[in-house]
Design a protein that fits this description.
By secondary structure, the chain is of the alpha/beta class. 38% of the residues lie in helices and 24% in strands. The protein has helices at 16-36, 47-61, 80-90, 103-116, 146-156, 171-178; strands at residues 68-72, 95-99, 120-123, 135-140, 157-167, 182-190, 198-207. Helix 5 links the parallel strand 4 (135-140) and strand 5.
Amino acid sequence: MTSTVEPTIPGLDVSRETIQALERYEALVRRWTPAINLVAKSTVPAIWPRHILDSAQLFALAPATCLRWADLGSGGGFPGVVVAVLAKELRPAMHVTLVESDLRKATFLREAVRELELPASVISERIESLTPLHADVLSARALASLSDLLGFAERHLTQDGVCLFPKGERFADEINDARIAWDFDIDVQPSLSDGKAAILVIRNIHRVQN
């Protein structure tokens, strides 16, 4: 960390060991980003608040009973790797599946999982052709429109599962667009890292019957 402020995870009581694991992950992202663009270069100086804390807030919204978490389009591991680091301490029975079709990014994710000894695995396949994951929680950050994400959820989420989708300031428009094709229950949670953004907590997803 370049900051002199002791890093914390708001809303979660985690050990110093978990904070150190997240710091090691941050260092990995910084080291690999120049080669494979894991995060936008403009956000590299603010990886902790912009990416790590933004990802960590999803963990607190997940049901305590979650055993299988699937993160679609994991990219540089946000939120999937952060979730796996937190799960290692707080929910050791939970496993995180990181889905990333870009082979270079998948290689990075496997290195992060190996180095940090995380309860996670990496699948480098297309989401559409992947065998259903039967996830209790499904997450995706900056991957696709909400309507497309609900299509992925139909395939990969358990019947009683929950989606956690961070969205930017146009989240209300995405919700309205998605309702053309989908019925779903939604709880809009304010983002702790961006006052204009939100976390969409979605359950009971069904296609609209024409």
